[in-house]
Design a protein that fits this description.
The chain folds into 2 domains: about 60 residues, Winged helix-like DNA-binding domain superfamily/Winged helix DNA-binding domain (Arc Repressor Mutant, subunit A); about 170 residues, Chorismate lyase-like (Chorismate lyase, 3-Layer(aba) Sandwich). Helices cover about 30% and strands about 35% of the residues. It has about 250 residues and is α+β, with helices and mostly antiparallel strands.
């Protein structure tokens, strides 16, 4: 596969940072192509190619005269406090959406016992092939009456923990989700996150509605109990144009 032109990629990267940082707000017009071209020292045609890359990612929309407008979409800011404290009966992604006045939704793709694959086994600290409980979900937010996906979340839970917290086997684990169920079972959890960026798989493109060149945020989380044992490992693959992670120390 041929690589996109480097100069156009630089334009796209430059504008993407300004959009995701909020400097260019949802619905705002981007500066004229000649202004961006002068700022970056490139040709107007190069700016146009960069804008079309962003349009292919769903970040901007092209309008008459070669102008571009930032797509008006809900951006959820998922804070650590949403996981540890939540908002009323909600925790995690749903709490973050509700706190911002939105309406969250979750599709549970599957729940069941599996043999731990390599990455999940490494994060759980168990041998590959160890029997574990896996939960696969897609989280999203309602926009204009339509469901817009934001992240694909997969959690692997040790069998010991699954026996102690039987609700994690249910499709609907109730208000607060599995985090609340662990707390009710007497667990005091601490978390360790590792985040990286990568391009989406074919399945992720379909579930998140993104293109093959749209970068995703890949977050792995270990959950430790009060005895410092790993009881579950989670992988969240997030569209950064729909969700930001906020860490407070």
């Amino acid at each position: 596969m041929s690589r996109p032109p480097a100069k156009a990629m630089r334009v796209a990267d430059h504008l993407r940072v300004k959009i995701t940082s909020g400097e260019y707000a949802p619905g705002a017009l981007l500066p004229p192509q000649r202004v961006v071209a002068d700022e970056l020292g490139v040709e107007r045609g190069t700016v146009g190619r960069g804008l079309h890359m962003l349009a292919a990612e769903g970040l901007v929309e092209m309008i008459d005269g070669g102008h571009a407008r930032v797509v008006d979409r809900t951006l959820t800011r998922l804070a650590t406090t949403d996981l540890t404290h939540g908002d009323g009966q909600w925790q995690g992604f749903a709490a973050a959406v509700i706190r911002l006045g939105g309406e969250p939704w979750t599709d549970v793709v599957s729940v069941g016992e599996v043999d731990a694959p390599t990455l999940a086994a490494r994060w759980l600290g168990v041998p590959v092939g160890t029997r574990v409980l896996r939960r696969e979900r897609v989280h999203g937010v309602m926009e204009g009456g339509e469901r817009q996906p934001a992240e694909v979340a997969t959690t692997w839970i040790t069998m010991d923990a699954a026996e102690r917290v039987p609700a994690v086997r249910d499709v609907d684990t109730g208000a607060g989700g599995i985090t609340r169920r662990f707390a009710e079972a007497g667990y005091t959890l601490q978390y360790e996150d590792v985040a990286s960026a990568r391009l989406p798989s074919a399945a992720e493109q379909e579930r998140l509605g993104v293109g093959p060149d749209s970068p995703l945020l890949d977050v792995w989380r270990r959950s430790y109990d009060q005895d410092d044992r790993v009881v579950k490992a989670s992988n969240r693959v997030t569209d950064p144009l729909r969700q930001q992670l906020v860490y407070r120390f």
